[in-house]
Amino acid sequence: MKTLVWVEHDGQAVKDATLSAVTAASQLGEVHLLIAGQGVDGVAAEAAKIAGVGKVHVADDVAFAHALAENVAPLIVELMATHDAFVAPSTTHGKNIAPRVAALLDVMQISDILSVESEDTFTRPIYAGNAIATVQSSDAKKVITVRGTAFAKAATEGGSGEIEAVASTGDKGLSTFAGSEIAKNERPELTSAKIIVSGGRALASSEQFHATIDPLADKLGAGVGASRAAVDAGYAPNDYQVGQTGKIVAPEVYVAIGISGAIQHLAGMKDSKVIVAINKDEDAPIFQVADIGLVGDLFKIVPELTEKL
Amino acid sequence: MKVLVPVKRVLDYNVKPRVKADGTGVDLANVKMSMNPFDEIAVEEAIRLKDKGVTEIVVVSIGEQKSQETLRTALAMGADRAILVVSETKVEPLGVAKILAKIVEEEKPDMVILGKQAIDDDNNQTGQMLAGLLNWGQGTFASKVEIADGSVNVTREVDGGAETDTLKLPAIITTDLRLNEPRYASLPNIMKAKSKPMAQKTPADFGVDVTPRLTTLKVVEPAKRSAGIKVADVDALVGKLKEMGVAK
């Protein structure tokens, strides 16, 4: 089986989510990559080194600069004439583009897979991860999105992919990019951080959230996350949100501070290797999944912990 | 300006899903069912756009006969009329998108606003698929929608922040959580909704083959995490973290 993997990038570098998608695709067969963007020679050179990749298709055109689904999907559909599966990471780009491709190919997409059981059978979470379904596809071609935390990352060195330019399918004139506000963040990205320190509603204000959570995260070199309650209350920005409707994370260590552990939050972090919970309510559901729990006042505990680590 | 809003009847989001003992799915017998929360946000957004040029809101549901309750809820919130496409068997997003494409051909809306995903199957596909089938622009995961002249500006929740795209109308919009807070239907509006028109159709009326492409082989509960230990103080926590190699 020949797979075509969507390379997630920011115009400068390959994003980590791509590497998990490559691993998933390699379990199906040959791995080819697609890099769509503007001025992406550097990204292409980097992607060609990913272990195990064959062809690296590069579509360089201003129409692809912001990965608008309306322009990118027809390009992918053309390339799918010679591939058997389209595999994208479950990033916002992947989730935006893949179903449009699937509809154009008349294929029912398999979203957010957790494992590849065989060429046509996969597991995927349903009901916010409260159940895991094993599904078998009868479509000749497959369109798949991959949950990053469920697959190991492919090595970024050792490959020698063959770079091949692809003709642009042009601007379809349906949509234009009008601007973006991407938060500048010096800390590791949530979906690839080894350690995450996350704060909940108990932090009680934006000032206290940052004054309490940030020093501990800095000390640990950790990414910073938040519960939906904290985000909705305005204590932390939207892109911090971990949970069913936010980011799905699985770091080596997840430190939940003042987070009660609503089912929607647990859905986003319960695959973390070690969960540490600090909460003043000893009956908080977070303690049912935590490996190490400490009951008490977070405003006393967290500064003390930051100092002693 | 006309807006079409598809809605889905799903297990209420406050109910904990239970996997059936025979592994065929999640038990939906005698449990509370409600409108998919993202679809409620879609209905609400369409209603709010009534001050800004929207004149008619048509809601559609594809599913079992009981989905008419979900449509009545949307009518009570403020939608004008409803179309129920009855299918007692499950219709996948691809089939739903194909039926919606046919309804769009008949109804000719200027926008279709959908929830970004249904909280049962978590597919996150229907809106994008419909946009592909219609060759329309798509503004997915919307946190802000502004109608302009012949176009719509959609601010979208993307990894790392927000992105704004301008779409030519007609267009597809899918809603994210922070777009708005849906209203509750008032009692007089619930009463009024009972007399609003609801058409009933079947997938065959649209000539759409909804045979599933995916077969669910089994459904299981995820591996459970067991509770660990509680430590007494920060020193004990630091000690544990060192023991586990997390802290130096």
From TrEMBL, chain B:
Gene3D superfamilies for this protein: HUPs
Alphabetical keyword list: Electron transport, Transport
UniProt entry tagged with the keyword Electron transport: yes
InterPro entries recorded: ETF_a/b_N (IPR014730), ETF_b (IPR012255), ETF_beta_N (IPR033948), Rossmann-like_a/b/a_fold (IPR014729)
One Pfam match: ETF
Record-annotated membrane-spanning stretches: none
Electron transfer flavoprotein alpha/beta-subunit N-terminal domain span: 23-210
Keyword Zinc-finger set for record: no
Family: Belongs to the ETF beta-subunit/FixA family.
Name of the protein: Electron transfer flavoprotein subunit beta
Species in which this protein is naturally found: Sphingomonas albertensis
